[in-house]
Amino acid sequence: MTDSSPTPDPSARAQRLRTQIRQHNYRYYILDDPAITDAEYDALMVALRELESEHPELVTPDSPTQRVGAPPDDGFAKVTHETPMLSLDNAFDADDVRAWGERIHRRLAPDHDLEAAPLAYVAEPKVDGLAVALVYQNGRLTRAATRGNGRVGEDVTSNVRALRSIPLVLPADPAALPPEITLPERLEVRGEIYFPLSDFEAMNARLEEEGKSTYVHPRNAAAGGLRQLDPAITAERPLRLFAYAVPEPAALGVTTQSGLLDALRALGLQTNPHSRRFTDLEALIAFAEGWLGRRDELDYLADGVVIKVDSLRWQNELGAVSHHPRWAVALKAPAEETTTTVERIEVRVGRTGRLVPHATLAPAQIRGVTISQATLHNEDYVVERDIREGDTVLIKRAGDVIPQVVRVLPDLRPEGTTPWTMPAICPACGEPAERAEEESDTYCVNASCPAQLQRHLEHFVARGAMDIDGLGIKLVTLFIGEGLIQGVADLFRLKPEDLEGREGFGEKRIANLMAAIDAARDRPLGRLLVGLGIRHVGGTVAGLLARRFHSIDLLAEADEEALAEVDGVGPEIASSVVAWFELPRNRSLVEELRELGVRLADPEPETRAPDDDGPQPLADKRIVLTGTLPTLTRSEARALIEQAGGKVVGSVSKKTDYLLAGENAGSKLAKAEELEVEVVDEAWLRGVVGG
DNA sequence: GATCCTCGAGTTCG
DNA sequence: CTCGAGGATC
After folding, report:
1. First vs last Cα of chain A: how many Å apart?
2. Residue A643, pLDDT above cutoff 70
């Protein structure tokens, strides 16, 4: 065996074994050049384990034997990502990529001579796996979290620690680390965890042999593996990671995406071996399209090719919109399509009264998932494609998720079909339906339409609105069916006696439900406004209105002009709000809710006038943010500014009052100086807002 | 008037 | 996730 000369000192011997094992992991996973057989590797592990069990005091938390720790006891803790994990903008063909290239050139051109220093890009196949964020503190893996919704993910540290392909310690091989790369105290690495296809097939073959059920999709198997409550099971799945991003790359001493990938590799993390740098976008497109056609040569599922601007400085200047960076785009592989037949087209009624045509399909498989329904959106969608009952249609899963009818195959149309038409009446209540001239949607305008009422109640109790725990679609349906409730106000009139003696309603459940309804009386105004279902008023707009008006009475009195003064509210939303409060039935609903003890106002700080948010030192000031601030994130700075009455705008112009600049400020700083805009820093902001 | 971005609403399957 | 449409900005 490799460790053939045991030293008398167990501590030194343990050290040596650990180093050997780490090096073999590194060779196996990163260099793809194993120096020993699996059996030899296992023997090293056995030796280390024996040594550690004889000398428990020698066990260190980062020892390879400690990968599988205690299973988490209940579920997974939530982790908030300090820098949100954004998704990628999609391109569906080469022209979309060209348009993206032109957009970023247009954005950078005013401030830079792009002729002299052409943009470079980095492209690599896009792995269809699970995005994760790994945190290394002083080189030790201390936390691993899933992407989740981008802002909050799940803590899967103990599971990720169980994966041999992910180093517990960085650098994995100090000798291979070039001197110019510095390991910061805290390093967050982002990447994609995936199930290699060869291993996936082997696992399925084994499961089948054992008579167990197999996995349909490698991503599900990888996700299932990561979310095992028992990390020992995770350890059996040979999941791998491609690292591709670091939220704060400056700390690593790199200036480009390609340099970042080199650094990650030098630290011992695997990166996509097919990553390539281009200065010619056309050459890159050829490369990307090449991979789209040869996806099956890869040992992982790829759903496209990721393209990024190479320069981190330019990435920084391009910035991001709310859910994707401007400096990257994913050229998506065409979604897998298949054919099926339309069994029926029916029309459903949404809570707004919108009539939505819907196709029931003969069940069809796409990538192992059975599709049996698809939305047809609106009248135009069906009529333009001339989709009829009985038709054979091409379907796909848009974004690999939402079933979509792409087009009809007219040659396969049976005899005797008739074109589909939007019904003139609401299928639920039979009242006439209306479609405004310039709109694509048809509405049932009957305010007492039972379908709308049902949807409305479901919405009222849902998360995001009044959030009544334990009250969902099922109970709403039951309560309406039994005549217990006819509108949202009736929810607050429910008494325990109404439910007693019903099947499934024990004492405990009734008490819980009553408590949940009671708790809903005290929701913030914004949530109540969401629940009321005013057209164009969702979570965001409701929050804006609540912040400005504080109470439903003041909101009800506001005219269109006053409403449109709120940033984010224009004429459409304003008129929709006014129209809602003009209806007598809505006014009386508000009165009923008031009598039933539902809170209709947000508490105001004592010293405040109704339309004052406290001191407004930055009232009407327009401020641009640039660079990295010492302690505040961009969104925190934005929140502070807005709280003080200021407005954060995207680009420097004559109308800008201040430029709030941090480190690595780029063109905005130059522009501000040119336009003689006052440049300020974080300390100034804290001073002004009294922070 | 064009362009970019954000928001609301409805959406499927496991 | 996708669609359509509203709003901000230049």
Report:
1. 64
2. no
Rounded Cα distance between A260 and A243, Å, is: 10
Q: Is the CB of A313 under 7 A from strand B?
A: no
Q: Which residue has its C-alpha nearest to nucleotide B5's C1'?
A: A321
Could you say which nucleotides of strand C lie within 7 A of any protein CB atom? Answer: 1-10
The CA–C1' separation of A652 and B7, in angstroms, is: 26
The nucleotides of chain B lying under 7 Å from a protein CB are: 4-14
The predicted structure's pLDDT at residue A3: 41
Q: Is the pTM of this model over 0.85?
A: no
Given this model, what pLDDT does residue A69 score? 45
Do A546 and A553 touch, CB atoms closer than 8 A? Answer: no
- CATH number of the domain where residue A631 is located: 3.40.50.10190
For nucleotide B12, the protein residue with its alpha carbon nearest to C1' is A402
Which segments within A1-146 are labelled E, that is strand?
78-80, 89-91, 121-127, 130-137, 140-146
CA of A356 to C1' of C3 (A): 13
Q: Are residues A380 and A234 in the same domain?
A: no
Structural domains counted in chain A: 6
Summarize the confidence of residues A505-523 as an average pLDDT.
90
CA distance A13 to A50: 12
Å from the A650 CA to the C2 C1': 27
Task: Examine residue A572 and state whether it is found in any structural domain, yes or no.
Answer: yes
At A134-184, the pLDDT tens digits run: 999 999 999 999 888 788 888 888 889 888 899 999 998 888 888 888 899
Q: Is A129 helix (H, G, I), strand (E, B) or coil?
A: coil
Query: Is A308 one of the annotated active-site residues of the chain?
Result: no
Nearest protein residue to nucleotide B6 (CA to C1' distance) is A322
